[in-house]
Predict the 3D structure of the following.
Amino acid sequence: MVESGTTLRPVAGDHQEDEMPARKTKAKTAADTGTKVRAEKPLAVDSTAAATVSEAIAGAADVTRGEDQAAAAATYSALSDAAARRGARGAAEGAATLSMANEVAAGGVVAAALSTDEFRRGMELAGIAGQVQAAAELLQGVRQPTLSAFLGRTSQHLRALSVEALSRATEGAIVAHGAEHLAGELAALGRTEMGEGRDEYANSEALGAASAEMAAAAVRSAAAGAAELAAATAMGGMAEALANDGADSAASARGADEDRPVKTSPASKPATPAASRRAPRKPSKPSKPKK
């Protein structure tokens, strides 16, 4: 304060001293905020980089899984085709075996019929041979030796034909029985081959379904891996941008700190007596001498 007569006037210096702490507080708050922001940027960069690495690893794993699933789908498809070929071959062989069994069975039936006919003919010839032999013996008794000898030879010939017919009938019966047995075995084999063919067809369908499912899973895995790798690329660009921004901010902050003038604290200023801050008093008028 400056005395001017009896009037007190505030000095501008005192007002400036009162306002300086407020400006220092604002400057300190702004500096702390800038420091906090600069400290948070490296953390954001590290977090983004870690997320980028995680996404890249997950994407590579999904892409690799998709490739493995695609290879498995191709393997299942090849196995399905092979099973289908085996099924077709088994079905064809079974059908051929059943046809052969039917033919053998038909042959056995024919052989059995022929055997029956031969047996009947043989028995008839044997009966005729016996009758002729009886007539020859009768003629021998009535003294007809020539006719008796002829009938005797005829009876022997008929007996031979009868034995031959009966032999063929026996062979035919054996053949018919064997054909029947063989036809049964062939039919069983044909049915087994047909069943194996159906099983191979079922395996082919199951492997085909597994191949289709694995191919769909491979497509899903590949799509997920591509999306994750794209996200990793985007996050990598973001991390690089944050890193560059942080480096630019740090460089700007260092430049600002170098360009900012150094302020001295009020405590470092030399103390000035209060009297020196006051304006000098005006000299008083000299008093007149008394007369």
Notes: Confidence is low (pLDDT under 50) at residues 1-31, 264-280, 282-291. Helices lie at 12-141, 145-259, 274-277. Residues 38-241 form one domain. The chain has one domain: 38-241.
